[in-house]
Amino acid sequence: METAKLSIQPQIIDLYAVLEQNGLFKQKEEVKSLVGYIEGMEEKLGQMTGEIKDMHTQVSRLHDQTLHAKCSQLVVKAGDKIQQAKTMVSVTKGKLMDSAGNAVKTFKEKGRSALVQAVEAMRIPAALSRLKNGFSHTAEAMRQSAGRLDTMREELHEMGGHMKNAGRALLGKPAKQAEQLASDKGILAGLRSVLESCGKAFSHMERGADTLMGKIQNGKAPEGKKRSVKSELRQLKTGHTEQVKAPLPKEQAR
User: Could you say which DSSP state residue 245 is in?
Assistant: First the structure.
């Protein structure tokens, strides 16, 4: 079951209210930027999940068992990467809700100064950095999978050309020059298109996080090495103390 949007969660609404009441408009905008970003990512990742389901349907139409197995493996891998990204966003969302509730409670008990410190303890730029790095890793994985499909298509196309010329040789006909591989036809081309689209979407999500980080940090370029989605997810889960479709073509595979 899909959870309610983050922006209508009571903890977030209450935090917005106390921040505005205390004139902490900059802090409110920072929280709103992360909330909006998370909601956008949830929507995009949901769309990708639907595309992965469609890809499984297309793979099931492949009759060649070796080809079916290879394509199935790529689609499963892509689905796993998307699920990791969804989990990473979900963990960030849960930590933000907890932090928002704690910030409001802290304000009621200790006042405005404690509220400012509680919002700073959310470490919003750090949360965006983890998401950015995770999306960067996933975008690269999608591009690599799309490249593998390109290789498979080229091999199949070349093999088909050899078989046709072998048949022509048996009939005493001269060999024909291989036709150019169509980039937009066949099941494999459709699968590749979706993987490429997902890679571009993750790169866009990465840039979105980087842009928000820059705004929050007043234009200061964020630092830090890229890490895998699993690495970022482990840090999110263990860092609790930080307060926080385009349809696929239905032609035969080529």
Answer: -
Distance of alpha carbon 229 from alpha carbon 82, whole angstroms? 10
**Cα–Cα nearest to 44, from 89, 95, 91:** 89
- In this structure, the dihedral spanned by the alpha carbons of residues 103, 107, 111 and 116, taken in order and rounded to 10 degrees, is 20
242: three-class secondary structure by DSSP:
helix
The overall average pLDDT reported for the chain is 79
250 exposed, middle or buried (CB, 10 Å; 0-12, 13-18, 19+)?
exposed
Dig out the tokens for 2 from the structure.
């899909």
* Nearest Cα to Cα of residue 47 among 110, 2, 93, 109: 2
Rounded to 10 degrees, the C-alpha dihedral 220/224/226/232 comes to: -100
Amino acid, single-letter form, for residue 69 = A
Q: Quick: pLDDT tens for 11-55.
A: 999 999 999 999 999 999 999 999 999 999 999 999 999 999 999
For the chain, where are the alpha helices, taking DSSP H only? 10-21, 25-59, 65-110, 112-120, 124-170, 187-216, 229-238
What b/e readout covers 110-136, taking b as 16+ CB neighbours within 10 angstroms?
A: eeeeebbebbeebbbbbbbbbbbbbbb
Q: What is the pTM of this model?
A: 0.72
- Residue type at position 116: V
